[in-house]
């Protein structure tokens, strides 16, 4: 039996650019870094109030990552969407979609990470 989710891996073209995005736009922090036995450069991003991590992987000498539209996304809860969007804008980031109120009363918006991975922001209703 599986005990719990530990991490989700996302391959990226430029590890440092992607780490900078998650740190600056979302305020996440790198917990650890290392190089895998296959030579992949890895950074594990910690997520607040969660044990799960996001593993970012840059694999040298491999084809470029090209994320298809709506392939996958990460979702994070925010307390106040308007305030969060304003802080993003001050940092030079802009929403790619939304804010949109859902039928449940939540407010959702999206911001694009490097390579086109989507990040969903949710203010619960």
Name the features.
125 residues; 2 helices; alpha/beta; globular; 18% helix
Strand order of the largest sheet: 1-4-3-2
CATH architecture: Roll
The number of distinct helices, counting runs of at least 4 residues, comes to: 2
- Helix and strand pattern: EHEEEEHEEE
Overall pLDDT score: 94
SSE class: alpha/beta
CATH fold annotation: 2,3-Dihydroxybiphenyl 1,2-Dioxygenase, domain 1
Secondary-structure topology with pairs:
Elements: E1 7-11, H1 15-26, E2 29-35, E3 41-46, E4 53-58, E5 73-77, H2 81-90, E6 97-101, E7 107-112, E8 118-123
3D architecture notes:
The mean pLDDT is 94. The protein starts with 6 loop residues before the first strand and ends with a strand. It is of the alpha/beta class and 125 residues long. It has a four-stranded mixed beta sheet, covered by helices on one side. Strands 5-8-7-6 form a four-stranded mixed beta sheet, with no helix packed on it. The protein is built from two helices and eight strands. Strand 2 and strand 3 (41-46) form a beta hairpin. The chain is globular. The protein has one domain (7-123): 2,3-Dihydroxybiphenyl 1,2-Dioxygenase, domain 1 (Roll), CATH 3.10.180.
Précis, in short:
This protein is of the alpha/beta class and 125 residues long.
């Amino acid at each position: 039996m599986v005990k719990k989710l530990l991490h989700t891996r996302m391959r990226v073209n430029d590890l440092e650019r992607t780490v900078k995005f998650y740190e600056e736009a979302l305020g996440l922090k790198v917990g650890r870094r290392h190089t895998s036995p296959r030579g992949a450069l890895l950074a594990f991003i910690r997520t607040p109030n969660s044990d799960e991590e996001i593993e970012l992987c840059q694999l040298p000498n491999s084809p470029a990552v090209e994320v298809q539209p709506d392939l996958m996304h990460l979702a994070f809860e925010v307390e106040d969407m308007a305030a969060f969007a304003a802080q993003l804008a001050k940092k030079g980031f802009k929403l790619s979609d939304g804010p949109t109120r859902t039928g449940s009363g939540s407010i959702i918006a999206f911001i694009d990470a490097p390579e086109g991975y989507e990040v969903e922001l949710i203010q619960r209703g």
